[in-house]
Write a structure and sequence with these properties.
With 253 residues, this protein is α/β, with parallel strands linked by helices. Helix content is 40%, strand content 18%. Strands 1-3-4-2-5-6-7 form a 7-stranded mixed sheet, sandwiched between helices. Bound molecules: guanosine-5'-diphosphate and magnesium ion. The site of magnesium ion (MG) has 5 residues, from α2.
Length: 253
Amino acid sequence: MTSIRPTARPAGVPAADPAAKAALGWMHTARFLTTAAQLHHLPRLDLPEIAFVGRSNAGKSTCINTLAQQKQLAFASKKPGRTQHINLFSLGRQNGTDAILADLPGYGYAAVPQQDKIRWQRVMGQYLVNRENLTGVVLLCDPRLGLTELDELLLELIRPRVEEGLKFLLLLTKADKLTKVEAAKAMQIARLNAGGGDAQLFSALKRKGVDETALRLRGWVDEAAPAFAEAAARRADSVDTEASDEQPPPTDH
Ligand SMILES: Nc1nc2c(ncn2[C@@H]2O[C@H](COP(=O)(O)OP(=O)(O)O)[C@@H](O)[C@H]2O)c(=O)[nH]1
Ligand SMILES: [Mg+2]
């Protein structure tokens, strides 16, 4: 059970710069869209999608809730029976969803039966390799534990897509548990592990890295938006052409 509650900015802490404020405001619009146990149950969406992945207990739910400033947004994935689901959240104004956040279940939890683990790894693998609108991946890692074998596997899996432009962020969670020296060292290692991607220290407890992460995700979506808009326009065009190619219905007289 997540014990850390997202807190408002403490008094005395300077307000975020306007861009960070806007990015945070955008994250706060996060709302539940749908849940799916298998890839083919997910709706096809023509919006940039950002996936949050990481081993169980890495701090994923807490991170999503902190970014969204909502106590239980990512709580659904912790409910029994939904633990193996991909949960999607919409981002953007109510009638102007402009991005999707995907919460993938944590992996590596010892108590999960082996066959469930294997099934889940397959679903997650398929998602990361095949999800067409996947724009970015945030991999959460507790730097005190470092990357696990499954994290490494995941990195291998997405590497080809990262080389083709998929955004990637290695988020080092629970940074409040590290000394300055440890944090600096963890970042050094993380930058190496992140390959072409970025690394960022994050603490829900101390609100460290929250603005930076929101800004980065907003940046990914802004960068991807024109390509999604173009694709949507092309599809609309081809629908128009198909419609105008259709023969008029026969008349009675
Ligand atoms: N000290 C500290 N603990 C955290 C932080 N984020 C999460 N935790 C704790 O780590 C545990 C796992 O967090 P949770 O978000 O449920 O992880 P998940 O399994 O990846 O979703 C919980 O006990 C949280 O309270 C943080 O920023 N600082
Ligand atoms: Mg969780």
